[in-house]
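Internal ticket #5521
Category: modeling
Description: The requester needs a full-assembly model to guide mutagenesis choices. All entity lines are attached below as received. Residue total reported by intake: 404.
Assigned to: D.W.
Attached entities:
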Amino acid sequence: MARYQCAVCGYVYDESTEGGRWDGLPDDWVCPVCATDKSQFRLDGGGQPAVAGTEPVAAERAPRANRAVMAHRVFGWVYLAIYVLLIIQMVPRLWLYQIEFPARTVVHLSLGMAIGAVLVVKILVVRFFRRLDQALVPLLGTFLVVGSVVLIGISVPSAFQEAAATRRLLNDANRQRVERLLAQIDLDAASCARLATPAALRAGQRVLRQECIYCHDLRTVLAKPRTPENWRQTVQRMADLTTVLRPIDQESQLLVTAYLIALSPDLQQSVRRSRQEQHRQSEARQAVGAAAKPSPATAYDAEAARQLFEDKCSQCHETSDVEKVTLDSEQSVRELVAAMVDEGMEATEEELSQLVRYLTDSYVKAKE
Amino acid sequence: MTPLTNAVLGVLFLVVGAAAAVVMYYLRGSTRLNGQ
């Protein structure tokens, strides 16, 4: 019984263990490891070509090719292990959704499942159906790599962006802002401090992701910034709706409220961009009218107006943002206040008048 | 698993898959088939 070694990958065909003589193998038989044909085999030990009249052209590459085969196997198993790990933690999430999937999720899902199916077929061909190897394996391998590029390309960039945004959200200034605003919903100082820690805000983020998507798309939650009290009421209302199927406890409600307050500046920025044109429409015009009404009944108190400005405007953005806007007349101030009303700022007509007066004195007259 | 861990694993998945494909092309592309 003789042994024949593949000059490409080093695979040994041993007649005594393979159960058949080398000469009895069909002409189109290929190496089960690297799919090279019979002409690339040589008699083990003797160095003679296994097929008369041929010389293995890749003989000098045998050790390198052997390493390449091993590397391909290792990469393949690692690829499979990561795939299984990702599937195990992603598939259970599918049962949480009660809404239609966004288009990107559908593509991600379909590609993920297709990659799984192709992996199974490829493993079956390599292990049990070697005759199909040459025809199928390169195609299946190419599909896997192209599918992986698309799969990762449509999902990973947004995940990194979200991670960067979360890191921004947890900076000291924003956490101090959250702590300050939480006091407006009647929480004691200790609770405010506890809910504004990075760990608590991350916990709130988890509640938002795990609980809120149970019933609806997050885009409806994050459509516009709200005041702390407004967030608290919204969360309370949602919790009341879920008491039967999936109750949200009091602590989770507070955690998610704090997180939503922390999100408000980003939401404000996003809404500002998307509604830039709408600001000039009729609703805002009506609000300008409301803000413009003089109120002689109440005397103007500059310090009270400054405090009002701090309280109202810092709920959604830094008060210094006002300096980025061109305020060159009382009319431009009214338009700015009207835009803020349109964004969701809640204030009485009297408070709006105070704000207009304060901003006019501070940013228009001060320049004159 | 956090979304960031998920994303890092995704990138690793892609890199390993691409490396396996490169090795596959090296092996099969450098092999003379059917004695041609």
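Resolution: model delivered.
Comment from assignee: Confidence is low (pLDDT under 50) at residues 32-36 of chain B.
Ticket closed.
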